[in-house]
Amino acid sequence: MPLDLALPRRARLTEAIAPHWRRPLLHLALAWAFLLLMFAHVVADMARQFWDSSTYNHILFVPFIIGWLVHMRSPELVKVTPQAWWPGLIGVAGALFLWLLGDLTGLALATHLALVLALQASAITLLGVRVTAALLFPISYMLFLVPFGDELVPALQMITADLTIALVHFSGIPAVIDGVFIDTPIGLFEVAEACSGVKFLVAMVALGTLAAHVCFVSWWRRAGFMAAAVILPIIANGVRAWGTIYIAQSQGIEFAVGFDHIFYGWVFFALVMGLLLAMAWPFFDRPRDDRFIDGQAIADWPLLAPIERFRASGAVCLGVIAALFAGIAAWSISARTVEAEIPAQITLPAVPGWQQVQAAPGLWWEPRAGGADHRLLAFYQDSEGARVDVFYALYAAQDEGREAGSFGQGALMPDTDWRWHSPGPDFAMGLSDRLQAFSDTQRLALTLYRHRDLTTGSVARLKLSNIRDRLTFDPHPTITLILSAPEGGPVPAEEALRRFLAATGDADAGIGEWMDRVAQLP
Q1: pTM of the model
Q2: Where does the protein end up (predicted)?
């Protein structure tokens, strides 16, 4: 038997990879496998959102799109030699530190973004600057793996409501708008969270970014296309909401809602997407046979030479990535043991000019503060009949399942008759919202968070303040205070809240000092 027939042969996949690419790709595969395994809980959380939330269903296609983008460049990529580049480890360290911050504060967006950034940074580290230049768009497009957009829902609800009422009036239907509620002769319609159009917008931005890169060369045309990709779904969603109301006037609410569920959704999005591409088609300026990159030009590009000189061993970089993760993980475990000392029992004090009373009859309202160590709910009334409901929650620490301001927590009670109506008035501190139940029950809720010397209505500012506790191992309690007043009483809700705030203590110290006294803080 000839000797060469007896020798083992490489797998076909290995043979298809250029020799100078095999080891760097192996290092990258090992790094990504390690990161995905170590962040398995983050991966699972992201995958659950991709699959369960219609807002993020489109992300299921993003990995395949990235693979396709890389494949289109593969004939030119073989002309570039990968070389590990140690400054990329700074990006890996930064991504892991961002994960630490998100993990310690329970901010899912931060942990999701950190995982994607770690994958990107490890690719830059193990493949080097020239390969990064060749794969700049596919690597950047990985950011669309991060599920984001829910933060835009309130603003999009208001925009959709304004567009809808304008179209309703233009079509001759008499209607009155109150926040996100539109009252028509056939009934009351709500521009709910699901009607905000956020899933259309985030999916269209992802699609628009891809199409702008693949179909255009001119940056001016790309910018114009992206502007259309943002504006068109917002306008289309307003048309969608108007269409439901318009059909309901002649066919009834049940028929309109059924038609909305069948026709709208992704079918409607597909039509809008087709319209956008059809309008842009005459302006596509990228040649069909375009290579997207010039591998030889990138390999010879002299401007990258000064940067490329910071070379390193891929195996060493792999070891450093593992060591960085081990250090960050140990820090996270240690920081999670940090909890502030809080009293065994707390009570809401008397407020000058106000007295505690029984809950008023009517629809029950009680904010949610899951995982809080103490929760109090009391009802105050002054001599003129102004009523304020006071909800107070005290946390020894912020962890998964016990986070002030997290999704489903706060003034708006999920899975109840209460709905978000509109932003409330400015109280200089805190965040106010108008809530509505049915067609005639409204209340104004003011949410405040307290940590150290910070009093705010911003969840982001609260989490940044809490990060300090964990990183420095110096714990302080976190407080949530929600003041709410019903509309329709002898005193308007806004006036009742302002009176109560003024009665809690020194105007210079503000409500924050009152919140501290309830928690018995020095």
Answers
A1: 0.83
A2: Cell membrane
- Asked if residue 6 has pLDDT above 90, the reply is no
- CA 359/CA 381 separation, integer angstroms: 10
Mean pLDDT over 256-279 rounds to: 75
Residues 99, 118 contacting (CB under 8 angstroms) = yes
Coil, helix or strand at residue 125 = helix
Are 122 and 31 a contacting pair, CB within 8 Å? yes
Q: Give SS3 for 259.
A: helix
Nearest Cα neighbor of 477 from 509, 448, 446, 450 is 450
- Residue pair 450/342 in contact by the 8 Å Cβ criterion: no
Strands of the 181-184 sheet, one edge to the other: 176-178, 181-184, 187-190
pLDDT in tens, 159-205: 999 999 999 999 888 889 888 888 888 888 888 877 788 888 999 99
Nearest to 447 by CA among 516, 372, 389: 389
Nearest to 355, CA basis, from 383, 319, 330:
383
CB 420 within 8 A of CB 165: no
Run of H or E residues at 327? helix 314-335
C-alpha–C-alpha distance, residues 162 and 182, integer Å: 10
Please tell me the distance from the alpha carbon of residue 143 to that of residue 128, in angstroms, as a whole number: 19
Closest to 230 in 3D by CA, of 212, 248, 217: 212
Closest CA to 38 of 123, 105, 114, 132: 114
Residue 216 and residue 206: Cα distance in Å, rounded? 15
DSSP label of 368: B
Q: Can you tell me the distance from the alpha carbon of 132 to that of 138, in angstroms, rounded to the nearest whole number?
A: 9
Q: What residue type is 226 in one-letter code?
A: M
Pick from 143, 135, 122: which is nearest to 29 by CA? Answer: 122
- Do 117 and 91 touch, CB atoms closer than 8 A? yes
